[in-house]
Amino acid sequence: MENTECMNLEEGDHAHQEDQSSTKKPFNFTVVPFNIEPHLEFIDFSKEGHLLLGSSNLVGKFWTGSVWFFNSGDVTPLEQESLSGHGCDSCVSAGKFLDSWEKIIIGEDSGKVTICSITKFEDDSTHFLPQHSETQHDGCITSLAVLKDKLYSISAGSDMKINIWDNNNLEIQHKYSPAHSMEITCVCSSLEEEGVLFASCSLDGSALLWDLKQSKPASAISHHEFGLTSIAWKDDNTVVTGSIAGEVIYFDIRNRKEINRLKFDKHPVHRVSINNDQGLLAVCGNSNIIKVWDINTTELVYTASEHKGFVRDLSWNPVNNNLYSCGFDKRIFPHIVPSSSEKEMLM
Question: C-alpha distances in angstroms, 334 versus 60, 71, 293, 317, 330?
């Protein structure tokens, strides 16, 4: 891929591969941290239904974080209920499963990206095994996404950079710097199978479409009057974004036009999460409120306010299609959300 006119593209240095132990149990497995930090930052589900949880300590003299692995989402976030944990040197801001539960990618506030394997040993213990780590961001990681083909991941940061990583060895494939003119808040992979399209949004109000097959990969989807905070794909032709004005906006990427707008709350949107199988759009923000709409009819089908602090992430469990939320109150809640058609059948 060649350089764009408005973005500098550099070839990344190859990540150094760590030496592997020849013993039965690798020497570099992670010692499980003492506890889960009080501020839950993200949750993600593997296709098998296992839960990845990120937590940070955002008070006190030292801000640190940890990542935890649970058998399912129906748990209390306590270290004794987890299968394993992994301590981080700084607050942990993003994390994703790669293809299966046995491999994950983590982003930290220090700008470090780490790939770990999760391994079960013969004594039935489970450990995180850090494989590769690279720090190619000059600010905190704000978002991670895994391309549909599972071969590459995308990291975005407060330094306005977007990096493309090889999931096998964490070699950086491409750098886009600056990719936006202000902090990048979210990146998301498209639904197409080839794994060459993704979208990004920023506090500069812009949403961009990226095509890795093109010599000039970035093109503008829209420029909103307020900063954009989250983005997700509704279908091959439509993305949905959240804004600091508390709005949810649909954009058609073919003609670069806004096609719908929903009002979430008076507070900024923090995350939009779409269940394409169920046709549901879940939204949380800088409050304890969660709202879910039918993504096609825009009918509000569910509202929740059980959290006692900011809700920080939403994730759909692919096994039971339930929505799960986590937040700064150190709690995880499951949500059974009916679609519009299911509500009509119950009436």
Answer: 30, 15, 17, 9, 14
